[in-house]
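Researcher: Here's the sequence for the chain we discussed earlier.
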Amino acid sequence: MTERFATSSGSRLYVEEAGTGPPLLALPGLGGGAWFFSGFARRLQSAFRVVSIDLPGTGRSRSADDLRELDPARWVSDLGELVARRVGEPVVLIGHSMGTILALHANDVWPEHVRGIVFVGGLPEVRPFIRDRLTGRAEAVAREGLAGWGPRASAGNFARRTLDEQPELVALFERLFELQDPATYVRLCEILLSLSARASLPGVQVPCLAITGAEDQYAPPDLVGEFMRSLTCPWGEVVLPACAHLPFLEDPQAFAAAVESFLETVC
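Model: Thanks. This is the structure I predict for it:
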């Protein structure tokens, strides 16, 4: 099921929902959207209600080239309304990459609506190596647009085995990546580079699971381990072999199984 959810800020959120049961809210990262989690939702729909979104100002939640919607504080407020008014009960947040930071900020603002958090390829802030890469990319895209960037993005997001053995998936990702609005993508890069949720970590009082790929360049397993050890309620960490930054696409069965094991203990 898909619909538009109108928020008091004026955003019209594109929402996908599948399944019945305890609710999950999936938050995509840079360049992603609800489609990142469509297959995942179908895998869990017999036992869980999976709600996924395009962030305000992006994808199918984008309205009339209005970059004012690209505001992380507004996103958190809009998502809180979505949970309170539409979902109607506390959720397990699933935050991918930048979505990890948004999930931590959401837990700051509306902790009463958070039952648990799954961090996917995420850290509380961008590490220096990725900061340099994204800064250069944003500058280049601002000058030249996104044409031709798909293969470069896939090389940084997929594991070697995925690139070699799943060329259809890689080609689809590259095509969708280049279809993004360049100005929106540049602004999203700027937002991600400006965000930090380190100050939020002491306030996390719900169970947390981290999932990352063994070859994730953005959130390497050693840094994810440090992140989890800084939390009060770390439930566990799962490192998926032969995956990188998009494990829900690279090994969807293993990813869904890891999340489901966590959900069975917190829902």
